[in-house]
Amino acid sequence: MLRLHDELTARGIDTRRTLDDAMLYALLAARRFANVQASAAMRPDLAARAVPQVVDSLGPAFAGRSAFAYDAKHNTLIRIAMPSRPGTELVIVVGAGCHHSANALRALQAGPELQRRLQQARLVLVTAPNAPIDTYLISEWNGVNPSMPIHAPYSATQWESIDVTGIPSFYLLRNSKVVERRTGWSDTGKADLLKLIDAAK
Predict the structure, then answer these.
(1) Mean pLDDT over residues 68-73, rounded?
(2) What class is the 66-199 domain?
(3) Which of 61, 42, 59 shows the shortest CA–CA distance to 51?
(4) Domain boundaries along the sequence of the chain
(5) Looking at the whole model, is its pTM more than 0.90?
(6) Which of 60, 87, 57 has the alpha carbon at shortest distance from 69?
């Protein structure tokens, strides 16, 4: 896509209407932040985009699972190591613009008892590993729910056990292996979530 975009630009073809946005979307999904910064700097129509800065103190030698925490005040993505502990873990994947994700997130706020059970199940709340990082969703949610923040996976490779085909998705992991999975949210979503939490015991 980058080569195609460069060729079209060299030929003087206007790419602002669709290709610029599509390219930016793909680069953000692939975590190609250097390319995002360069593309935004070279194209006036992208210059207004507030592309977040990335702080990676873990580096390329890090082995394990990591994610980005978002600092809304400084528009910065900070790479952090995610806990790797034996036992069970409940991973919930949500996305912006998805009303089923919004309904699931509202359910997580149902009360202190549910939140206590989520903590016991070791909740990990993330966006899809192969989707662009939606800083608005993350900052809005984390500002109100600091005890169960949403993170953005660092790469799809590190999170390959989370094979996201739809959102919201719910994964029960035991010793880092998915043992149960559910996708979507319906009228019985909260009851289904409680059953998944009970299975994590």
Answers:
(1) 94
(2) alpha beta
(3) 42
(4) 2-51, 66-199
(5) no
(6) 57
